């Protein structure tokens, strides 16, 4: 029996225009799970709220652009402009119902210049990735706290709030998603990320080797073989940690 392979690479997509970058109005987060906003807050984090480009995009870029190289030192991605970042969010987050990006609002610091935030200041972003109803699992990722809010309560409270949202049962009040496993993946050298995860009850499970091909601009990785088809782009290993429902019930919460 003969066979053919008729696969063709997809055609490059044209850049998103400004309207497409900011998404529809009202903004459709397109997340396949209920957003229990009453669970997504603590006494210091007013709330984790869906990231809306028209509301949060410029604030995000204003806070990261001047320190971009340092902030993204351990990330496997790089954006050179707000437009690139918004195109990334549209393609990989809003278009995927298993992903959602959330803005962190710190209610201990009012921002009188931006009353549209509902009180408090935007302090960073945090995301859920690959959230599966079939496997009852997700991953906390894209945890980025703005420089002015680092070494404060923000990262701890945002992570804790998200764990409550994921691991509380739907029958509880306030309700959660009732997931069984929450994963955290970190660059092996990102000590701040690893400390935060362990402090929040995540347990180390091992290292996945060669999980990312880094952009050529990122040199903090491992060199591939000389004939590697993506050389000279370096590779990245990933440390995997997780907190599961039984850890949660046995004291992590």
From TrEMBL:
Pfam short name (any one): Acetyltransf_3
Classification via PROSITE patterns: GNAT (PS51186)
Domain N-acetyltransferase: 72-221
Record-level Gene Ontology MF annotations: protein N-terminal-serine acetyltransferase activity; protein-N-terminal-alanine acetyltransferase activity
Superkingdom: Eukaryota
This protein's name: N-acetyltransferase domain-containing protein
């Amino acid at each position: 029996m003969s066979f053919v392979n008729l696969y063709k690479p997809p055609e490059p997509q044209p850049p998103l225009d400004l309207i497409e970058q900011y998404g529809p109005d009202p903004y459709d987060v397109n997340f396949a799970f209920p957003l229990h906003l009453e669970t997504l807050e603590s006494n210091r984090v007013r709330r984790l709220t869906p990231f809306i480009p028209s509301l949060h995009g410029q604030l995000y870029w204003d806070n990261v652009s001047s320190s971009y190289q340092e902030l993204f030192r351990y990330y496997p991605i790089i954006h050179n402009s707000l437009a690139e970042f918004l195109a990334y969010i549209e393609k990989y987050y809003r278009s995927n119902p298993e992903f959602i990006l959330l803005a962190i609002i710190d209610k201990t610091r009012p921002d009188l210049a931006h009353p549209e935030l509902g009180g408090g200041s935007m302090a960073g972003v945090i995301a859920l990735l690959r959230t599966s109803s079939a496997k009852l699992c997700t991953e906390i990722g894209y945890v980025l706290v703005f420089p002015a809010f680092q070494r404060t309560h923000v990262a701890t409270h945002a992570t804790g709030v998200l764990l409550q949202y994921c691991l509380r049962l739907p029958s509880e009040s306030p309700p959660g998603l009732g997931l069984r496993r929450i994963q955290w993946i970190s660059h092996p050298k990102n000590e701040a990320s690893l400390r935060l995860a362990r402090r929040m009850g995540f347990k180390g499970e091992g290292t996945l080797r060669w999980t990312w091909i880094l952009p050529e601009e990122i040199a903090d990785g491992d060199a591939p073989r000389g004939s590697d088809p993506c050389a000279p782009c370096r590779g990245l290993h990933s440390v995997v940690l997780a907190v599961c429902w039984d850890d949660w019930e046995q004291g992590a919460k």
